[in-house]
Amino acid sequence: MTNAQTLERTAVQGPQKLGPLTPLVGEWEGDGGVDLSYHNNDDVTGETTYFEKAVFKPIPIQENGQQVLWGLNYSMTAWRHGEEAMDPFHDEIGFLLWDKAHGQVIRNVVFGRGIAILAGSDAAVGDRTLHFNATPGDPCYGVLQNRYLLDRAEIKGFTSSFTFDDDDTFSYTSDLVLKLAAIGEEMHHTDQNTLRRVKRYHPGSEHAG
C-alpha cells in the first residue's frame, strides 16, 4: 500500500469519522445536575439536583441509500441527590448521528416517560458546541409523546446543546417548553449538568467494550 493510499484510508476510517461527535466517546459522570420542573405533588415549580452517568459508544456505519451516517449509541441516567441507591428519576437512550455530506448532527432519543424526539441542526468537524432542536409537527425534526402527556403536559418545543471543554469535560443544557394543564400556562422544563470522562473508548472501535 502506498503512502497516499494509507493517508486516504486513514482519512476515511480514522477517529474523525464521527466528526463533531468524536469528543463524546466514552463513559462520563457528573454530580452538579440541576433540573427545573413543575412538581405535581407540591403544585410548585422547583429545582432538583442530581448525579448522572452517561455512556457514548460508536456504532457501525449506517446507510440510507446514498446517505451515510456515522454515530454513537448512548444512554444518560440521573439520580436525585440522596437517592443514588434507588431507581433513577430520569432515563434516556438513543443515537447521536453525523451526516457529513449534509453537515448535520442528529439526536434520536427516547425518554422513559413515553417521549420520542428526533432533533438536529447544522454542524461541522471541530465545532465545540452542538445544537439539537425539534418542534412538534415538524416533518423532519419533531416530537412524539404519549396521550396522557399530550393532554396534561404537551411539549411545544425542544432545544438542547452539548459543549466540549478543554479539561475532559462536557456540559449540556436542555429546554422542554411544556403547556401544563395544572397551571394553565407554558413553562420551561430545563436541565443542565457538566460531566467528566471516567473511561475512554477508541473512537474508531465499532463496539467499545
Describe the structure.
The longest helix has 11 residues, at 3-13. The protein has one domain (20-200): Calycin beta-barrel core domain (Lipocalin, Beta Barrel), CATH 2.40.128. 8% of the residues lie in helices and 59% in strands. It has helices at residues 3-13, 147-152; strands at 26-39, 44-64, 67-80, 90-99, 104-111, 115-122, 129-134, 143-145, 153-164, 169-180, 185-199. Strands 7-9-10-11-1-2-3-4-5-6-8 form an eleven-stranded antiparallel sheet. With 209 residues, it is mainly beta.
Give a topology summary:
Elements: H1 3-13, E1 26-39, E2 44-64, E3 67-80, E4 90-99, E5 104-111, E6 115-122, E7 129-134, E8 143-145, H2 147-152, E9 153-164, E10 169-180, E11 185-199
Antiparallel strand pairs: 1-2, 1-11, 2-3, 3-4, 4-5, 5-6, 6-8, 7-9, 9-10, 10-11
**How many beta-strand segments?**
11
The largest sheet has its strands arranged as: 7-9-10-11-1-2-3-4-5-6-8
Please report the distance between the alpha carbons of the first and last residues: 30 Å
Whole-number total of structural domains = 1
* Count of helical stretches: 2
Low-confidence stretches: 1-14
The succession of helices and strands, N to C, reads HEEEEEEEEHEEE
The pLDDT mean sits at: 91
Protein name: THAP4-like heme-binding domain-containing protein
Region (Disordered): 1-22
Organism: Mycolicibacterium holsaticum
Domain THAP4-like heme-binding: 17-197
